[in-house]
Design goal:
CATH topology of one domain: Rossmann fold
CATH architecture of one domain: 3-Layer(aba) Sandwich
Radius of gyration: 19 Å
Number of strands: 12
Number of helices: 11
Oligomer: single chain
Length: 334
């Protein structure tokens, strides 16, 4: 059984790739020219060079595959050219799903995001049925993921596709080479660059647990359904304090009101527009921080058999990996 994985050079995609290999799948990965291939090193995968924006390369990548795991996405909280993100996340997703449909693949697992889901105003965990809308999506990344999921749902319904949607929360753990925005929080904390925090919250899950959730969705998921793959709900302060405890340190941090952060983020975005380098804080990230982004994985627990380890273990693995790979002042755990 051969499965195509998109996004395998990235953080979550590489974890899905490893999970499928361990389960006995033959794996082909779609890789853009010039991509950082460190996450592919020493793994027995077939590489198909291509791009979600190049339809001919998608046909070559899908040809001969039984299944498709579409994990790839342009995940950034700030982009100098939003059209590129739309072309990859929305148009590229549509093109790949249509290509897979025309090739008569047996199963498709589409990696959406909890970014497409609604949030409860009282901070209680949201689920797959919590109302959401395009207007509620904060930032261009969330809006493109919302649009992409709507496209996938329409295609699935119109053509009765054997497609299951998964909505990962916030993955953390080894292999975050870029790193992701959440990974940067870990690295900055380890390097003493997080002296303050804002009152926000995230759902934290080990990247390998989310990857296994993809395999469970492939094996047990109902076509047309979507499943949240998450972990523990934590405030940002709890995340920072957990990293401190892992390091055997106690740091005092200042709570910064979000109102103060808006002018700072505005200035950072203006500088980024000139330097073309992603700012450390954006207006959209501050708007998102006004909400507790808490979620429940109960549906995946009951229908897929999904389980997740305690979030502290995910953070421990992330700390160890970042230190071992020289993202911090010391490469060894203390």
């Amino acid at each position: 059984m051969k499965s195509l994985v998109t996004g395998a050079t990235g953080f979550l995609g590489s974890a899905v790739m490893r999970c499928l290999l361990a389960a006995g799948h033959q794996v082909r990965v779609l890789v853009r020219p010039g991509s950082d291939r460190r996450n592919l090193e020493s793994f027995p995968v077939e590489i198909a060079t291509g791009d979600l924006r190049e339809h001919d390369s998608l046909k070559r990548a899908v040809d001969g595959c039984d299944n498709v795991f579409h994990v790839a996405a342009d995940y950034r909280l700030w982009v100098p050219d939003p059209q590129t993100m739309f072309d990859i996340n929305v148009k590229g997703t549509e093109a790949l799903i249509i290509t897979a449909m025309e090739a008569n693949v047996k199963r498709i697992v589409y990696t959406s995001s909890v970014a497409t889901l609604g949030l409860n105003q009282d901070g209680s965990p949201a689920n797959e049925n919590t109302p959401s809308s395009y207007i509620d999506a904060t930032g261009f990344y969330k809006r493109t993921k919302y649009q992409a999921e709507q496209v996938v749902k329409r295609l699935t319904d119109d053509y009765a596709l054997p497609l299951v949607i998964v909505n990962p929360s916030t993955p953390i753990g080894p292999g975050d080479i870029r790193p992701t925005p959440t990974g940067r929080i870990v690295v900055d904390t380890l390097n003493g660059r997080m002296p303050a925090y804002v009152n926000t919250g995230l759902n934290i899950a080990h990247v390998d647990d989310i990857a296994l959730g993809h395999l469970l969705a492939f094996e047990r998921g109902v076509p047309g359904e979507r499943y949240i793959l998450g972990g523990d709900n934590m405030t940002l302060l709890q995340i920072l304090q957990t990293i401190d405890e892992i390091e055997g340190m106690r740091r005092r941090r200042t709570n910064i009101p979000l109102g103060i952060m808006f002018p700072m983020a505005w200035c950072m975005e203006k500088i980024a527009a000139i330097t073309r380098r992603e700012p450390r804080a954006t207006l959209d990230s501050i708007r998102m921080a006004k909400k507790l982004m808490y979620f429940s994985s109960d549906k995946a627990y009951h229908e897929l058999g999904y389980r997740h380890r305690p979030s502290v273990e995910a953070i421990q693995d992330a700390v160890r990996w970042f230190k071992d790979n020289h993202y911090c002042g010391s490469s060894q755990l203390q």
